[in-house]
Amino acid sequence: MQPGQQPPQGFQWDSAGQQQTSPAPQMLQGSPNMLQGSPNMLQGAPQSMMGNNAYGQNQIMMQPPSTYATASLVVALLALVGGFLTSGFGCLLAPISLLLANSALKVTTMHPGHSDHGTARAAQIISGILCGLLFAGLSIFLFIVITFNGL
């Protein structure tokens, strides 16, 4: 190029110093209203977050949906301890824990590798055993009441 001449429009001398733009990331699942913290987000739907990786490119990180696995395990343990301390009346919490654990397991089986799956399974086992003991205890109580009611 001779002195006094301008480079053609749109010509770039050095492209190394400029950032290259990548195509906008697409949502893998859901709608634009599914941003984290949005009031329109469905419960049990995966939440997406935008993040930058080491190369400055945007990537989508999917957070697993939240569950009641920890709450169901706490209620199951309260039912277990309360069953011993209150002569079996604490086992009345077991069906509540079983319902919570089953709902948590529905969510965790839809998302393989979910971190709450083991907790939900443990709560389901403990509360299932306690529900069985509750049913057996009520059956024995009703049998005794019906048998000795005529005396």
Compressed to H and E, one letter per element, the order equals: EEHHH
Shape: rod-shaped
* Largest sheet geometry: 2 strands, antiparallel
Count of DSSP-assigned helices = 3
What is the average of the pLDDT values? 77
Termini separation: 118 Å
What is the beta-strand fraction? 5-15%
By secondary-structure content and strand pairing, the structural class works out as mainly alpha
What is the strand arrangement across the widest sheet? 1-2
| Number of β-strand runs | 2
Q: C-alpha Rg, in Å?
A: 29 Å
Helix content: 40-55%
Return residue spans where pLDDT drops below 50 for at least 5 consecutive residues: 14-19, 30-41
